[in-house]
Structures are given as structure tokens and as C-alpha cells.
């Protein structure tokens, strides 16, 4: 800050000294880094010159804070069932407290020896130690342990997992939960004092200022609560989820969001002081020291940042190789931070003048020790006293200086007023305009001066005089302005417009300069001033649009260009720019998973300027929304613009293969669009894609024909490999994948295919190496990163999986495949509720596939919560994919055997023709509901008999249907079916027995008909006639009943009845099948002849 040289010497020196105290200059420098064998999520801890680091390689390290020398390391994994934790160690009394996944350890800080340990689920548990009590999170429990014996003193059960690190103040503990709660607990017994409900999970650690508790939530809000009763003082919504600690410093609370924004809010009112964007994703908690915020970022931008608390400006940053998820830790003159690249970094930081920052002055209520909230080193008492003394002296000197300045200004005003009167008659029209503007400014300046001076008690009398003079001057100026306006009314409108445009052009020139210097906010204001004066200027509107775009306000940018387009609808530059902006907005919405909003933006871009690439993007959105018909139509339109876009031709062929259209018609459409001739490699390739789903062999045949024509067609080899992989022809798959790589060593998808193959074969090491090769060729390959995360999960290396999942960005980050892996990681970390949430997101996604849902079903073995399993079962029932319900029901029966789940699972097995499996399971539950279970067993035997009958396994079918009757003897249709089988094997006597039993239970026209046929076979015509007649009486709509009855009447020489029945049938069924009609007509005629002959004989 520059100070006027007119200030008295002592005042100037005091100001400079105070500024030096308030704004020490800092020096930052990278010193060294220390390598561990895996990523590091936990924060480092500095104590007595040693840095302690808990790495995901399963070791606790002790490192010399100055030299980076490894002093010792201790393996924390007790057995193979244990996994590395990611908790930050706590150091006290030469003891280090740290957790792995299943154990809590007490380690000697001097040599790394384990002094004590406690078994339990401690993964991701933040440790807090105070008054010989160790506070630990264990899933949904918050526990207090004694530091010496590790005996549990008390526990508190929260609503959902407790992911928030605790804050301890006096006798209270504050923490948040995944169940949308903030808790205040009694430190002695763990009793709930109060709770506050948020709109989403709370994972951030609280901070405190006076009697106000600050805590952020995933609902994108920072809350200020009364720490004694939990009442809300205020809350502010920000533009991203808050997962990190919000420290308080100098009357402001500093909030970081996962979107990379940092806010400074006034602690009392919540008023925004400043907002800063550091680009990357923020999961690291910030720490503050000497007016500097230290914070790490991850995602696209991996940096370690130093940010001014005064302005939010980045004063220094360092590019990292890995993401920072931890919080920094201060040493003596060093700051330490860990990274996902497995390194501990050390930086030099200190004030060049060696001036320490004063400790924050807080209200009296918080003068007690605020534990777990330390943000920096304390200032010496001498410097605090010096600061206070300077501030008091400065106040007195500034008041004196202000009084003198006011007196001089009042005198100047009187002189100016006199001068104005003398110059009135000399003013030209242009001078009048300028004078009016100047007078306005003077009025505003004097009003501002008056308002400011009223605040000083020492100048009350002087201000009263000033007010009187200013009022008089204001009346005069108002009168003078009115006169000037009357004069201006006589000036030509063209001259006024010219003046406005001149002013607008000046604002525009300033705005462009500001924009060139990246002074975005001033530039935006200047552009807006120019537009106010000249609203129809296209250049001004486009300039404002560019400034807003650089600021990241794409909606404001498109509004500016829309206004410009209305002024000049044919302007090619405006149309092109506006189309690009809508596309950028669409891409952002798409990356965030807002498909409808993205679709609207791309449609608007298309309306402005039609483009083939836009059709392809719209088709992708249709696919994500599950609208295949419109996806096909849109892709077809796009290919009319770009026939050579091979990727979209392939996509169109894949879409066509999922729609019920004749394959040859599809192929003709594709070849016409692509301009391909039949009997070419491209034509056979498209044909292979079209037949992949419905005709595996024909698809392979088409691919082989394509290779015969073009032996270097890599895409064909890859797709053949995938088909072989799905058919479990692993040797053939490996051969074509390797052939593909031999032809094109940079073909990434072939490496992914081999990775999938090696996983199937159990060659995990080979799979990992080959997929890493794919990532080295294409670091952005979503499929490769997903596959590698899957490999790490198969090895139960959750941290390794997290590392690669976190590298996936954009739209793929919310893809079903990623949600499945995230869900599995959470399940393996015992976060079942969150894991199932990820599964539900994957299932409900419009891009969900059968493979995705099958993976989720198979992972149900990791779920222990009965209710969560039932939620998944209900979702799968809606999807109508019964086979995927099997592992879910099996898991439920393993956890909590019950008859209803057993019956549900048995019916699924039955519908899938897995009769033996269903029967074996049902037999175990007969004692629970014997009647219901017996009926279900009988139904399985019955359906097994029907399947065996269709397969001509008649002997087995008889055995099965007899078993069905044994378990369900009163089912008429089982007896009927037994009769059918006996009739089929020509055991007519047994079939009669079965049919009679069936009719005894339930009369049925078909059974009477079959019974008649059996009697007929046994030459029991009288009984046959009786049963045919009974069948016909129950159902007269069957032609065969009439035909058989007529035939038996003829056989028993009842020709008149035979003739009557046959005639009735011929008349009743005019559209009878020709062959049967011919037989009946013949029977009728023969019966008539017989009757004539008999009549003649008589």
C-alpha cells in the first residue's frame, strides 16, 4: 500500500510499521520429498523434529523433519485379513496412536516398537487425544478409550457412519455423520447434548469461534450454530459439497468446496468477503498460519497452494505429481504435505522479516482453550502490545489530520462556489454538459464526506457546520442542475447521443484493457457501463460476453450473444460464437450428469448453426437416456454430414443390432450411409456388428471374411476377441488380441481386452501390467482406469482402486461402471449404506446394462444389512431380471433364513428350470410351512416332468409327475398329466386310472375326451361314448370332440347318430380344417349308405 508523503513523519512511520506487522512477506521453497511404497491419504504429523506418516503400504514411518532421513518404520498389518488404514496419527508423551483397518496401535515414537494394540474396525478413523482419553470413530459408533490400557470408556451410536473428525471444546465434543446429523456430546460420558439436522451427509470437521460452531455439509451449505444449544445462527449455500475443515482466522471462516472454490465469510453475519477458485477438486482441509491458507487440490489440477487470507489471491503454488487428500502440517520453518503419489513433501516457509502473525482475538466466551483448532504459532506478548500501542497512537493522529483536512475542504468549497457563479455566463453547450457531470460528482463526493465524518465523535461540531454548508451547496447545485437541464433540452438530440456514444467508447476502451490484463470484475463493470450508454452496440455485447466467459459464467455469456444476434441476425461471427458457447454449456451439463439441460443446450446450438458433430453428441445423449430410436435417427442425420466418421458408423450398427429390424435391411441402410459396397472388408465388419447379439457364429464368420480381405483390420480382431471372451474361448481370444497388438501396438482397447482375459484366467499380475500399459498409451482411457480399479479390488487393495477411480473425470465419473466399483469399495470398507447408494445410482442410470446389474447382484455377498438387501431385491424385481435376484436371496437366506425368501428364491429357480436346486432348498423348510412348501415342491416336480416329456424322456417324466402327486395329491392337473404320459407310452389302463382321479378332483372336458380315447383303445366303446358325450356337453367348441364321437357311433353301428353328429359338426364349423372336413363328410355319407342298406333289407 502506498502512503502519501504529505503525512507527518511519525504518522507515516507508524503506518508503515503497522502494515509490516499485518502483512509479513513470505518465502516458499521446495526442500525434499520422501518416498513410501503406496499412496498416502493420511495427513503427516510433526512432533519433536520428527514427521510421522501412515502410508497405504501398511507402514507407519518416522522421518527426520530436516534431513528426510528415515528413522524407523513399523508394519501395522497384523494378518492377511487386515488392510492398511488411512488415519492420521496422534502423538503424545512419546507415543504414536494410529489405526489400520482392523486394529488400533500404540507405537513407541522413539523406535517404532508396538506398545499396545486393540482389535476392531477402525478404518478411516480419525483419532483425537485429550486428557488421557483417545476418541475414535468406528463405523456408526464414536468411542472413548483410555490411552494406557485402551479400555473402552463409553460409546455413542450415531445415525449413519460417523465420517467427520471430532472437535473438542471444553467439555463438549462436536462431530457430524453420514446420516445428515451434527452432534454435540458430553466428553465424560458420551451423552447426547443436542443434535442438528442437515440436508445431506456431514463429513467435514467442525471449527469454532467464540460460541459459534462452523461446519460444512455435502448439502453445499456452511452452517453457523450456537455451540451450546445447536440453534442455527446462519447458513450460506455455496457452489459445491463441503468435505473439509473450515478454519476461522481474524473474524472470517474459510470454506473450501469440492469444486475448487474457497470462500471467506464474516463469522458474525455470514457476509461474503471474497471468493477464490483454485481450479482442482478439494478434499484436503485447509490450515492457516500468518495470514496464509495452505491447501492441496486434486483432480485435473494437482497443486499445493498458498493463498492470502486478506484477498483470496494465490501467492504461491507448487505442481504435484499426485492428488492431495490430506491436510498440511507445520514444522519449525517447514510445512509438510502428503500425496497420492506416495511421497511426503517438505517445503520451507517463513516470513523474510521473521515477523509472526498475532493470535486472533476472540470473544470472551471462547477465551478458554479451544482444542483441536490450532491454526498457527502464537505471537509474542511484546508484539501484541506494540501493535495495540501503534493502533491507539494512529487513531489519535488520524483524527487530528482528518479535522485539518475537513476545515481546508470547507474553505475550498466556498471558494469553488464563488468561482462557479462568476463562470456561469461563459459556459458553452459542451461545457454545460461537462459541468453538470462534474457537479454531480462533487455532490456525491461531499455527501460521502459528510457521511464519513459523522462517525467521528471528536468532529461533531465541525461536521454540523459542514452539514449546513453542504446543504446550502446542494440546494444551489440542484437549482443549477435544473437550469442546466433546461438548457440541454434545447440542444439537438443528435448531439446528446453523440456524447453518450463517446462516453460509451471510453468505457469500452477501458474494459478491453482490463480484460487483456485479466481484471475480469472491473472489465465486466466497464462493459456494462458502455452497454448502458449504447445498448445496441454489438462489439460491446460481445466484449461483455467474452469477459463473462473467462469468468466461467457461460449462461451470462450466451445471454450477451443472444442480444447481439437479435441486433444482427446474419452476423456469422456472432452465430458461430453463440453456437460454441451453447456447446460448452452442454458439455458442462453432460459432465455433471444433467442430461436434459445438456440436451437443451445442444439443440439450441443446432438451431443456431447445424453441424454434423452436434448430431453425434445429441445421439450420445439419446443413448444415455435410453432412447434408441431417436439415437438411430440422429446418428443417421449426422452421418449424412460426415460419412467417413468410422466410430459413429460402428455405434449406429451397434444400435441397430438392439432394435427389432431385419438384419439385411439394417446392413443395407448402413452400407448406403457409409457408401460401402457389398463384399468389402468394411461391409463384412458392419455385418459382424449387426449379428453380434443374435447370431454369434454368423458374426464371427463375417469378421473372418473381413480379415480375409484386409488382414490388418485391427477393430475386427478386437471385436472377435470380445466375442471369444464372452463365449469363454480364452485361447482364441488371446490369439486375436495379441494379433491386434502386433498389427497396431498403440491400439489401447486390445490391451484392455487382454486385461479382461487375464482376469478371467486368474492371472492378476499379468492383467495389472497389461492394463497399466494401456493407461500409459492413453492416460485418459476410462475403460482402462475402470478395469485397473477392478483388478485392485479383486486383490482387496481398496486404496489402489480408489487411486484409479479418482483419476476418472467428466461424464464417466458418474457412469454405472464407476458407481459399481465405488459401491464395492465402500462395502469392503464397511460403508454398506453408501455402497448400496452407489449401486442404486448404477442401476437407475439410463446407461445401465445387464452386465452392470449382474456385477451388483454378485457383490451382494459383501452386504450384511438385511434391509439393504431387500431394497436391492425390490429394484431388481422392477427390472424383471429374475436370475439376478438369486445371489440376493441366497445372501438373505445366509444371514436370516426365512420361509418367504426361501419360497421366492425357489420360484426363481423353478422358472429357470433349476428344479433340483429348488427342491433341495425347499425340503429344508418343510417344517416351517408344510402345506405351502409341499405345494411348491410338487409344482417343481410337475414342471420337471413337463420338460422331460418335451425332451422325450418319458420314463423320467413318469417318475417326476408321480413325485409331484406325492407332494400335492389334490392337484387335478398333475393326475391329468400322468394320464397323458401313460397314454403316450400306450399304457391305457394306467392312463384311465389317472384320468378318473383327475376328474374326481375337478371335472374337465379335456380329461373326459382323453378318458374316452383311452377306453376306445381298450375297446370299451360304451364307456368311450359316454365320456365323449360328457366332454361335448362341457365344451361344444371342439371339432375333434364331434369327430371322435361320430366315429365311435359308426364303429358301434349307430349310423343315424353318427350321421347326425357329423352333419352337426359340418354345419357348426364352416371353416373346419379341410382334412377333418373330408373325413366327416365321408363318415356322414358312409353312415347314410349303411342306413339305406339296412332300410332296404328291412
Number of strands: 32
User: Level of helix content?
Assistant: 40-55%
Structural class, from helix and strand content?
A: alpha+beta
Q: What percent strand?
A: 15-25%
Averaging pLDDT over every residue, what do you get?
80
| Distance linking N and C termini | 142 Å
Structure, explained:
With 1098 residues, this protein is of the alpha+beta class. The chain has 38 helices and 32 strands. It is globular, with a radius of gyration of 43 Å.
Q: How would you sum up this structure in a few lines?
A:
The protein is α+β, with helices and mostly antiparallel strands and 1098 residues long.
Keywords:
about 1100 residues, alpha+beta, four-stranded antiparallel sheet, about 55% helix, globular, disordered N terminus
Provide the fold topology:
Blueprint (H helix, E strand, L loop, with lengths): L8 H14 L3 E10 L9 E3 L2 E5 L4 E6 L5 E6 L14 E3 L2 E5 L3 E6 L5 E6 L7 E4 L2 E6 L2 E6 L5 E6 L9 E3 L2 E5 L4 E6 L5 E6 L9 E3 L2 E5 L4 E6 L5 E6 L10 E2 L2 E5 L4 E6 L5 E6 L9 E3 L2 E5 L6 E6 L5 E6 L9 E2 L3 E5 L4 E9 L29 H43 L5 H25 L6 H29 L4 H24 L3 H14 L4 H14 L2 H14 L4 H20 L3 H14 L3 H13 L3 H14 L4 H11 L6 H12 L6 H11 L4 H14 L4 H13 L3 H14 L4 H14 L2 H14 L4 H13 L3 H8 L10 H13 L3 H13 L5 H9 L7 H14 L5 H11 L3 H13 L3 H9 L6 H21 L3 H14 L4 H13 L3 H14 L3 H13 L3 H14 L4 H13 L3 H14 L5 H24 L1
Antiparallel strand pairs: 1-32, 2-3, 3-4, 4-5, 6-7, 7-8, 8-9, 10-11, 11-12, 12-13, 14-15, 15-16, 16-17, 18-19, 19-20, 20-21, 22-23, 23-24, 24-25, 26-27, 27-28, 28-29, 30-31, 31-32
Amino acid at each position: 500500500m502506498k502512503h502519501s508523503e504529505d503525512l507527518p513523519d511519525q504518522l507515516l512511520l507508524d503506518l508503515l510499521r503497522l502494515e509490516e506487522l499485518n502483512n509479513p512477506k513470505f518465502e516458499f521453497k521446495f526442500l525434499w520429498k520422501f518416498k513410501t511404497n503406496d499412496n498416502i491419504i493420511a495427513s503427516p504429523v510433526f512432533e519433536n523434529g520428527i514427521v510421522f506418516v501412515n502410508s497405504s503400504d501398511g507402514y507407519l514411518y518416522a522421518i527426520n523433519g530436516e534431513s528426510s532421513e528415515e528413522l524407523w518404520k513399523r508394519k501395522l498389518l497384523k494378518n492377511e485379513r487386515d488392510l492398511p488404514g488411512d488415519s492420521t496419527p496422534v502423538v503424545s508423551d512419546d507415543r504414536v496412536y494410529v489405526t489400520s483397518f482392523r486394529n488400533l496401535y500404540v507405537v513407541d515414537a522413539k523406535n517404532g516398537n508396538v506398545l499396545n494394540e486393540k482389535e476392531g474396525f477402525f478404518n478411516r478413523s480419525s483419532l483425537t487425544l485429550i486428557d488421557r482419553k483417545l476418541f475414535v470413530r468406528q463405523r456408526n459408533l464414536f468411542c472413548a478409550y483410555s490411552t494406557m490400557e485402551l479400555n473402552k470408556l463409553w460409546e455413542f451410536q450415531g445415525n449413519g457412519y460417523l465420517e467427520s473428525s471430532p472437535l473438542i471444546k471444553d467439555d463438549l465434543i462436536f462431530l457430524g455423520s453420514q446420516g445428515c446429523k451434527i452432534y454435540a456430546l458430553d466428553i465424560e460420558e458420551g451423552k447426547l447434548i443436542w443434535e442438528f439436522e442437515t440436508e445431506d451427509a456431514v463429513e467435514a470437521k467442525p471449527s469454532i469461534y467464540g460460541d459459534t460452531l462452523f461446519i460444512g455439509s455435502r448439502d453445499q451449505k456452511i452452517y453457523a450454530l450456537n455451540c451450546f444449544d445447536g440453534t442455527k445462527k446462519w447458513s450460506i449455500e455455496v457452489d459445491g459439497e463441503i468435505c473439509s475443515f473450515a478454519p476461522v482466522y481474524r473474524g472470517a471462516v474459510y470454506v473450501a468446496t469440492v469444486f475448487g472454490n474457497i470462500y471467506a465469510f464474516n463469522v458474525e453475519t455470514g457476509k461474503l468477503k471474497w471468493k477464490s477458485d483454485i481450479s482442482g477438486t478439494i478434499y484436503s482441509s485447509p490450515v492457516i498460519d500468518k495470514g496464509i491458507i495452505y491447501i492441496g487440490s486434486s483432480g485435473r489440477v494437482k497443486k499445493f497452494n498458498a493463498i492470502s487470507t486478506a484477498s483470496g489471491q494465490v501467492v504461491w503454488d507448487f505442481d504435484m505429481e499426485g492428488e492431495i487428500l490430506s491436510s498440511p502440517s507445520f514444522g519449525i520453518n517447514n510445512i509438510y504435505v502428503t500425496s497420492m503419489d506416495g511421497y511426503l513433501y517438505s517445503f520451507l516457509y517463513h516470513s523474510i522479516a521473521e515477523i509472526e502473525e498475532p493470535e486472533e482475538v476472540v470473544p470472551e466466551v471462547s477465551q478458554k482453550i479451544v482444542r483441536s483448532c490450532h491454526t498457527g504459532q502464537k505471537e509474542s506478548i511484546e508484539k501484541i502490545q506494540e501493535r495495540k500501542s501503534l493502533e491507539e497512537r494512529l487513531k489519535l493522529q488520524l483524527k487530528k489530520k482528518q479535522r485539518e483536512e475537513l476545515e481546508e475542504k470547507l474553505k475550498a468549497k466556498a471558494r469553488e462556489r464563488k468561482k462557479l457563479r462568476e463562470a456561469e455566463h461563459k459556459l458553452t453547450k459542451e461545457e454545460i454538459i461537462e459541468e453538470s457531470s462534474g457537479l454531480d460528482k462533487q455532490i456525491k463526493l461531499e455527501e460521502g464526506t459528510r457521511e464519513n465524518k459523522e462517525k467521528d465523535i471528536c468532529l461533531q461540531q465541525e461536521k454540523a457546520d459542514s452539514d449546513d454548508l453542504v446543504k446550502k451547496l446542494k440546494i444551489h447545485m440542484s437549482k443549477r442542475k435544473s437550469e442546466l437541464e433546461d438548457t440541454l433540452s434545447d440542444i439537438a438530440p443528435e448531439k446528446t447521443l453523440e456524447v453518450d456514444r463517446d462516453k460509451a467508447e471510453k468505457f469500452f476502451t477501458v474494459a478491453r484493457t482490463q480484460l487483456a490484463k485479466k481484471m475480469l470484475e472491473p472489465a465486466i463493470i466497464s462493459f456494462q457501463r458502455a452497454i448502458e450508454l449504447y445498448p445496441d452496440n454489438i462489439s460491446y455485447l460481445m466484449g461483455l460476453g467474452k469477459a463473462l466467459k473467462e469468468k466461467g459464467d457461460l449462461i451470462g455469456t450466451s445471454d450477451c450473444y443472444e442480444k447481439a444476434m437479435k441486433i444482427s441476425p446474419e452476423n456469422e461471427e456472432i452465430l458461430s460464437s453463440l453456437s460454441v458457447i451453447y456447446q460448452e454449456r452442454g458439455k458442462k451439463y453432460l459432465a455433471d450428469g444433467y442430461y436434459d439441460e445438456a440436451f437443451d443446450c445442444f439443440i439450441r446450438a443446432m438451431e443456431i448453426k447445424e453441424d454434423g458433430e452436434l448430431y453425434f453428441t445429441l445421439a450420445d445423449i439419446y443413448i444415455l437416456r435410453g432412447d434408441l430410436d431417436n439415437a438411430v435417427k440422429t446418428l443417421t442425420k449426422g452421418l449424412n454430414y460426415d460419412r467417413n466418421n468410422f466410430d459413429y458408423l460402428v455405434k449406429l450398427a451397434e444400435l441397430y443390432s438392439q432394435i427389432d429390424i431385419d438384419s439385411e435391411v439394417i446392413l443395407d441402410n448402413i452400407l448406403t450411409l457409409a457408401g460401402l459396397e457389398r463384399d468389402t472388408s468394411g461391409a463384412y465388419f458392419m455385418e459382424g456388428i449387426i449379428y453380434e447379439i443374435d447370431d454369434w457364429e454368423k458374426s464371427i464368420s463375417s469378421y473372418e471374411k473381413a480379415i480375409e480381405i484386409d488382414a490388418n483390420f485391427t477393430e475386427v480382431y478386437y471385436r472377435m476377441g470380445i466375442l471369444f471372451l464372452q463365449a469363454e474361448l480364452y485361447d482364441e481370444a488371446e490369439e486375436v488380441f495379441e494379433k491386434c497388438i502386433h498389427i497396431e501396438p498403440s491400439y489401447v482397447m486390445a490391451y484392455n481386452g487382454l486385461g479382461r482375459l487375464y482376469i478371467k484366467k486368474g492371472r492378476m499380475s499379468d492383467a495389472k501390467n497389461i492394463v497399466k500399459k494401456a493407461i500409459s498409451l492413453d492416460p485418459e482411457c476410462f475403460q482402462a482406469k475402470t478395469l485397473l480399479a477392478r483388478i485392485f479390488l479383486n486383490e482387496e487393495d481398496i486404496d489402489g482402486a480408489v487411486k484409479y477411480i479418482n483419476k476418472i473425470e467428466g461424464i464417466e465419473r458418474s457412469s454405472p461402471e464407476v458407481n459399481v466399483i465405488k459401491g464395492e469399495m465402500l462395502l469392503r470398507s464397511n460403508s454398506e449404506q453408501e455402497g448400496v447408494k452407489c449401486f442404486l445410482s448404477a442401476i437407475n442410470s439410463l446407461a445401465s446394462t445387464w452386465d452392470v446389474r449382474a456385477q451388483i447382484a454378485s457383490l451382494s455377498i459383501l452386504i450384511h444389512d438385511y434391509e439393504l438387501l431387500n431394497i436391492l431385491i425390490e429394484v431388481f424385481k422392477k427390472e424383471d431380471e429374475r436370475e439376478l435376484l438369486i445371489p440376493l436371496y441366497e445372501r438373505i437366506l445366509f444371514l436370516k433364513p426365512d420361509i418367504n425368501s426361501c419360497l421366492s428364491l425357489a420360484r426363481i429357480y423353478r422358472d429357470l428350470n433349476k428344479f433340483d436346486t429348488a427342491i433341495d432348498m425347499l425340503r429344508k423348510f418343510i417344517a416351517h410351512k408344510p402345506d405351502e412348501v409341499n405345494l411348491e415342491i410338487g409344482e417343481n416336480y410337475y414342471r420337471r416332468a413337463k420338460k422331460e416329456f418335451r425332451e422325450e424322456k418319458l420314463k423320467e417324466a413318469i417318475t417326476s409327475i408321480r413325485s409331484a402327486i406325492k407332494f400335492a395329491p389334490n392337484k387335478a392337473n398333475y393326475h391329468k398329466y400322468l394320464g397323458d404320459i401313460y397314454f403316450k407310452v400306450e399304457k391305457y389302463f394306467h392312463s384311465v386310472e389317472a384320468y378318473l382321479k383327475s376328474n374326481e378332483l375337478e371335472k374337465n372336458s379335456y380329461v373326459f375326451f382323453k378318458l374316452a380315447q383311452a377306453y376306445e383303445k381298450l375297446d370299451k366303446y360304451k364307456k368311450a361314448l359316454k365320456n365323449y358325450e360328457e366332454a361335448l356337453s362341457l365344451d361344444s367348441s371342439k371339432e375333434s370332440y364331434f369327430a371322435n364321437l361320430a366315429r365311435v357311433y359308426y364303429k358301434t353301428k349307430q349310423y343315424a347318430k353318427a350321421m347326425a353328429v357329423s352333419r352337426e359338426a359340418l354345419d357348426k364349423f364352416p371353416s373346419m380344417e379341410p382334412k377333418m372336413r373330408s373325413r366327416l363328410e365321408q363318415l356322414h355319407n358312409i353312415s347314410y349308405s349303411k342306413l339305406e342298406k339296412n332300410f332296404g333289407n328291412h
